[in-house]
Amino acid sequence: MAKMEDIVSLCKRRGFIYPGSDVYGGMAGTWDFGPMGVALKRKIMDAWWNYWVESREDIYGVDAAIIMNPRTWVASGHTATFSDPLVECGACHGRFRADKIADGITESVTTEEFKALNVKCPTCGKIEWGDIRQFNMMFSTHVGPVDDDSSIAYLRPETAQGIFTNYKNVVDSIYPDLPFGLAQQGKAFRNEISPRDFILRDRECSQMEIEYFVAPDAWEENFEKLLDQNHKFLTDVMGLKSENIHDIEVGEKDRAHYSKRTVDIMFDYPNGQEELMGLAYRTDFDLQNIQRESGKNMEYIVKGSTERFVPHVIEPSIGVERLILAVLSNAYRQEENRIVLALPEELAPYRFCVSPLLKNKPELVEKAREVYDTLRKKYQNVAWDDSGNIGKRYLKQDEIGTPKCVVIDFDTLEDGTVTVRDRDTTEQIRVKPEEL
Ligand code: GAP
Question: Are residues 195 and 52 in the same domain?
């Protein structure tokens, strides 16, 4: 398994991911994607959209506003309960998430339980803890020109509520058959007490979520189906090794306030096992709350019958950054003389890199440009590289994860064939450009 610092270093060196606001010394918990990173991110998000929305008949997309009416967060329970246990060291005044600095405790830890553990402060080593207090993680802002309590709004802490609040609009406008799902991708914001582990725990992240609406008595079979389909997505589409993926049945005490069953899908990251995504049975919690708060009826009328009920919901939710980190650590290989990012071909920023063997030979450059233009028409994401020597170009493309490097050399001018070098095996073969 790769080390986290090796992945962080490759990401910066090769233009995948930089610290947010790097030029000003950074902004904790935020990250910026460079040219390679944004290509990878978009491919991952597109692959998810294709798998869940475009290739299915029962899941539709939505794209809701990030800033929502604050009543949303009262109804959803976030105003009252979306908090983490914050503890402050009386000696150095460092602030920490209690459940992250002590083993064997959870988010519901009490001050007494925490103090009994005699945990040392990770910064100064002293044991002088204050009381645990619940810290609400929503970022607040003011909407409009007046900064008073009536203008407070929040940046959404989950994309899910933008789906729930549109459930009625979708049913009224397109009336899908039940069960059906609504999917959304987009930014979510959490004022995490301790952002950490590179892009694993951020203050600004992207989520990909589905709310899958089912009849109340059909939740169990749909939960199992979605669990299985999520595993297939992670292994067959994202290429993650199944031995690094583990399901954890979350106990009642540790489940989110809305959930009656949660399976966390964990991944073996470089710094240890962490949650990659969650699958939660949210019951009719959200739609009932919206019905109460808005006064609008959230019932679904079963087609061709008089049966009506508020649907129950199964929610697969995954963070884009956590998925990117899983894909990167899964692909990273340190070999004797090189580092390789063995990304699945569909996710690699470039599918091909085309080079003339020598940059100062116009006949090679011209032929290489021809091959490059032809490939670009077919694949779009093709790199052109005429920098340094050919060995250095290969090393660079290996680190970016480009599956095939195509080189136009003097034999090309004789017999029309080009060299194709394979990223994973380093083997080289000669083919006609039209066979690529
Ligand atoms: N709508 C349900 C929900 O938001 P969650 O377990 O809080 O549930 C879902 O978050 C997923 O979002 C997580 O499994 C993780 O992949 C991602 N996620 C949550 N907080 C994150 C953070 N601070 N940084 C990066 N990803 C995060």
Answer: yes
